Structures are given as structure tokens and as C-alpha cells.
Amino acid sequence: MIALRNIEKYFEHGPTKTFVLRRINIDIKEGEFVSIMGPSGAGKSTLLHLIGMHDSAWTGEYYFLDHPIHKLKKKERDEIYKKYFGFVFQSYHLLDSLTVYENLDIPLSYRNFKKSERDSIVCDMLDRFQMVGKKDLFPNQLSGGQQQLVAIARAIIASPKVILADEPTGNLHSSQAREIMEVFKRLNASGTTIIQVTHSETNAEYGNRIIKIVDGWISTD
To answer: Does residue 103 surpass a pLDDT of 90?
Structure first.
């Protein structure tokens, strides 16, 4: 599903290069649950954002479902991202000026859904995450755990093939974190590929594969 070949990313400071990622070679099959681990500054989030096509300033080859991402224009990459990916951030990234309902509707508005279809999908998602009573609230009226549940619901509402999660439980206490990871586990069991960046050994154990990065290099896979 995902193939990375000799991926490198660096920043130039005059004549010198500071590498963030070095010679990254990874294959991820559809349906895997992969945890990317390593110390702070190792390049974990950089790699995740690269896979999520938020970053195009890198060298190497990246294939997604046989699409040569490294050869595509930004507009083409954006189309693939919107069609196949959902992203969950540590800091939620909900739109504060929109209600829970409106936040969930946004990813559907990018696609060719009729308004009635969108309403039905949003209502199903609110029911699935037991948030029907919170649909008219704004993000700042929710707890951290509730905001992250909304963020996950938003990430999965258009049925992406891949969910990318960057420290998804980093701001939550342990019971909230466990609830979020159980959601990911169920999504993965239903066939969704999940790639998470985490410092947590407990979170990593929910997956079936751990990739460790140190100083931009893959140390173990």
C-alpha cells in the first residue's frame, strides 16, 4: 500500500546540510497497525507528515497504491490525501468557530455528497461516538478527551483507507487515552490501516509493528 524508497529530508544552512530523515525504506501493507517510536527530535512526526503529504520538501520515492507521489503536482497529491487519508493531531486541530456537527461535516463537504447524505453520515457518526447531545457545542465547551473523540470522528467520517495519528493521546489522562486507543483498535480490526507516532509503549502494543527511529535513521523495524 505504502512504499518509501531512500527518503531523505534535510535543511540547508549555507554549505552544510542538517538531515532530519536518512535513507528511509519502509513498506506498509493495507490493514497494518504501525507505531513509529523514538526519542524527541528523531524525525517521527516529520515522517508521518511526509506520508500524509503535508510535506513535499524531500528526496526519494514514495508510492501509495501504485501512485508515484514523488512525481505528482501538489493538486494531485491533495486529491489523493482527501480521498484516502484521515489525520488525527495531538492538539485536536478542531475549528473553534464551528460546532461539533459542523466540524464533522467539513471533510464530507470536500466530496460529492448531497446535503441529505452528509446529514445522515454525520448523525451516524455522532451516534457511534455517543456525542448526539454535544452536536451543537463548540470545541472549547468540551473536555480534552471529548475533543479528541471529535477529531477522530472527523478523521474517519469519510471512510479513509489510512489514518495517521500524531501522539493522539499526548494531552489526555490514562482512561481517556485507553478509550481513544480502543477506537483505533476497532477501526483497524475493520480494515483501516493505522500509522501512529507515539512515545507510549502501552499505545504501541495496540499495533502489530513498531518502527523505531533514532537521529533520522530507522534503527529497528
So the answer is: yes
